[in-house]
Predict the 3D structure of the following.
Amino acid sequence: MSIIIDEKKSVIVQGITGREGRARTKLMKEFGTNVVAGCTPGKGGDSVLDLPVYDTVLEACNYAESYMGETVDVSVIFVPAALVKTAAIEAIEAGVKMLLLVPDRVPVWDAMEIYAAASSNGARFVGPNTLGVLSPGRAVIGMIGGRAQSAREWFKVGHVGIISRSGGMTSSCGYYLGRAGVGLSTLVHVGGDSVLGLRIPEVALMFESDPETRAIVVFGEIGGSQEEQLAELIATKKVTKPVIAYIGGVAAREGTRFSHAGAIIEGGKGTHAGKVKALREAGAAVVSAFGDLPEATVEILNRHSIPLQRSGS
Amino acid sequence: MARLHEYQGKALLAQAGLNVPRGSVAASPDEAHRVAADLACPVVIKIQAWTTGRKAMGGVAFASTPGEAGEAAQRLLAMKVGAFPVEQVIVEEQLPIEHEVFVSMSIDDAARRPVLLLAVTGGSGIEDRVADVNRIAVGVDGSIERAGVAAMLAASRIGAKVQPAVVDAIARIAALARKIEARSLEVNPLVTTRDGRVVAADCRMTIDDYAVFRHAELGIDIARELDHPPTRLERIAYAIEQDDHRGTFYFAQLPPDPGKPLIGFHGAGGGGSMMSMDAITTAGFSIANFTDTSGNPSVAKVYRAARIILAQSGLVGYFGSGSGVASQEQFHSAYGLAKAFVEMNLAIPAVIRLGGNSEDRAVEILEDACRDLPAPVRGFKKDDTPAKCAEEFSQLVRQCGCKPAAMTRCVPGFVGSARARSFPISGGRVWIDVDNCDDAVTETAVRHSAGLFKNELGKPALAVAEEEVATKDSELIACEIECRRAGYPVVFVDLPVPGLDDT
């Protein structure tokens, strides 16, 4: 098993006719994702990479159901930031239960509105400002890996789940772990913003219930409360699988945003020291240099007799 | 700026129907004197600066007469907050305060909804009075549950008569936060006065950077969350980001760490940049700036980012590193950096970690294009850790004497010449030195032009319409660098950085 995505889930792409939408749909298909259709308002009737394009999400869902006998599981959204709210709420209202909001610069009040709409419809989402989710050997949504061939070379199949607040570092963690012989169940980039659909603690809980995942690697950052909440889950034994973490931003100053909208220390909260302390006290392993992450992970896997990679299947 | 000054915030509060103290902003002692004279009552004078604890640093003064107000303003306007001089003060009526209420709207990242913190006992020392702070849920439409707030006030010492007006003020604050898409909006304190008014005595507001585009009415010129007013280079960088939406370019200057060698920092990707910043500061350097170009930026954007980084004085080196395993094709960055380094005839060492897709090609482009520069330029790949790159960088900086170097932009002689072939592109102009193009040179240029040039009677000429080439800066810069690598520097893409290159 994996979390959020696998090769069987049906995926649609909103904004499939745009530059990014088209390029990333190609990557997803080549990697093995079951992309069934796309939509772009006003472009209904077109086709992209042999996929039918519809004007609305509802039409795309109807097509998937009547012609392919599939319910759309995931919608991946590649539309300009200002239009993300409309696109996401359209998908939620059409009954899609998992969304991936790729664009950067989505206004925070829009993200809160999307969350409210998702909550009242039983839907969830990853992002905004996410590179996506990838399960090695199965499927990818979003753009992790850039090219299908790179993604196959970089990420091995195994038992470690990755959760990261940085897109580039999601790939980076996966690659360096792979080089150290460590395979992965799923890589999740929760997004760089402050208001997110799925946050580190929730993804950790998903990994906790995923039988294939046996350890969790976290790339955290200054700002916000995600790492502190994860520490709380570990301390209260809601997350029992070993957690190995690195927290970026030891050199960051309060009051200045470091790229990610969520990476800002405000009012003395969300500091590097506070996060490291909370995680360590809860029992997580926190490395000080990013380069030490693979070795620390291997050591912990060995200590728990967890095989580095998963063979067969 | 996404942070508003007190006087700007108060204007918004007044528009939203709240009472604010009578008064005005002043930029000189004379102005302050005039404002105080108009008010004809005892006044308070406060510096307008993005900082808390203004009172403790001596940034707040009281005056009974216009003369005193002028003197106080003179003293306050001579202050500095950090490196930034105080440019304005606010001069306001002193309020006959009866009770103070702490009102603070912020975004609860865990709940993914706005939250209003309320303390009916006022805001001073609020950090240590957790028990006094009540959390009021705010809807994503900016609405609050009035009954809950009313119940809280009913249990307070605030007079019953004025309570409804306090509830109303709090509801208006929450609605204003929604309207202007604030990330935080604090009114501390909201006061009741002995004459029965409810007044917003002070405020702090931060607008969501990503929503600034739909709030022209706020007059925010730089939507960037910084702890200081934007510097000249930050303004130049921000303008570039506004003119070119391909990828992201983030640039913030940081106060130097005295005694440590100062370097330019160029990251790629938020997390990777932060991790690399940590690695290079751990190696003992002070970074002059935090920069991130990511999200598949155009080559022009990477080039301009490098130019702005190099415009900082006192740098002894240039360190670039991102996540190290980038999904985006790394040769684009290599072309942009190579162009900036060549143009500036780079005289300080540079180490760039170009790990990710097409890294072999990227490192080869960068190192080869920069092979004749005064200072060494080294590229690294994904298997090189940031700590290792930082170590290599330290050695290069030491070998080069760890000293700053003056650099000026060098533009080839054929630029502007009537004999050169030239055409405009978005944000600049391309020049081709046709006099120095024989068949072999022309063929080289055509081969590296991604189909934009053709061989016309032995000289490179546009193969497509001028409109079509206007946005092809990435391909054209690649062509310029490839011709240079081949030993034929006959193509030059002139992309002046507004504010840096115009005199």
In short: Residues 232-399 of chain B form a domain with the Rossmann fold fold (CATH 3.40.50.261). Residues 103 and 170 of chain B are 7 Å apart (CA to CA). The first strand of chain B starts at residue 3 and ends at 4. Chain B has four domains: 22-93, 97-218, 232-399, 421-494.
